[in-house]
């Protein structure tokens, strides 16, 4: 096997088992409360935006509460925006004053986040924007996204991109050396010719690996909206990333490389329609929808990184808390069909999805069915069927009056009435299928 792929496989073992993580987008943009791109979308100059630091109190910031919520929801890792595109740092950096130590909160928010999540046994990651709209040496005029892109007076003549890279490397080094063991770094993002060598990606990955060799990274030093980079090839670069990062979508058939081998991936999705706090966005997904998204990712061999956007006081919106608590209730009973699970190698059934962990196949019934439910695609001899929420027996049956269907085995979800309606758990009722030995 190719060495980069081999090492990637080893490094991502915990990550592929974990399956469910929390993304946290938090920064000054929580005050305008129109999403984290507000500076770019509304072309706000730094001088106008920067004073928000004076109001960024984070007075209700209690990362232990966030961590407990993540744990309750069944999330195994969390990724916080240490710095987003606006350049404001949530950590104590010596390389710019534009950081949370000098904001109204006067705190190293990253440090507290890491301590709190580690204390709950949750793996920790940091999102770091390789784009920086505050740094004077980052291209302004004519850049694709910079807030000052339409201002010829912000021309790039005296900007020195190497100086920017020194700053970027320096900040990443601070994060990797001052905060103990990190599990993940989420670099964001590449576009146009702003990718790979432009970021000195090879040098960067060498630095990352020399400080924290186990750390896993996403694919965005190379991958962009235009393509995923060499992670999908048979010969990925060292900085191609440990996982692919499809955004706001779940890939139709999971992600495989050109050899047809599965590639670790993580779909990142928002709970409403924004990453950063957006006060008027109440388009929240239901807990049921989130459960279905999670199961879908796992059934295709991927992870779900689900976002919350705390407000400027540091509170995760109530709607998000409620949804995550309900997801947690479901996870309490059913997480066995999520952790350590992946592709079942069976076509998607009509009534839901299959996930699998070795010889255990999990039938996720999401659509109520009248009568018996066919275990399509499972041909081995079945030893037993159990509902995993309460380990109750699920009865197997054969279809008695239509011979053509007898190649399938069937089950009833309501054992005493010999039917399957209504679903015991309308969100997703999970049945564990154990095959006879030698049938896997
Ligand atoms: C994007 C956006 C961004 C968000 C992120 C999450 O590339 O620029 O605001 O942080 O992806 O995946």
UniProtKB/TrEMBL annotation:
It is an enzyme of class 3 (hydrolase). Its EC number is 3.2.1.51. The record marks 268 as: May be important for catalysis. The keyword Hydrolase applies. Transmembrane segments: none annotated. InterPro entries: FUC_metazoa-typ (IPR016286), GH (IPR017853), Glyco_hydro_29 (IPR000933), Glyco_hydro_29_N (IPR057739). It comes from the Bacteria. One of its GO terms (cellular component) is lysosome. Keywords: Glycosidase, Hydrolase, Signal. Alpha-L-fucosidase is responsible for hydrolyzing the alpha-1,6-linked fucose joined to the reducing-end N-acetylglucosamine of the carbohydrate moieties of glycoproteins. This is alpha-L-fucosidase.
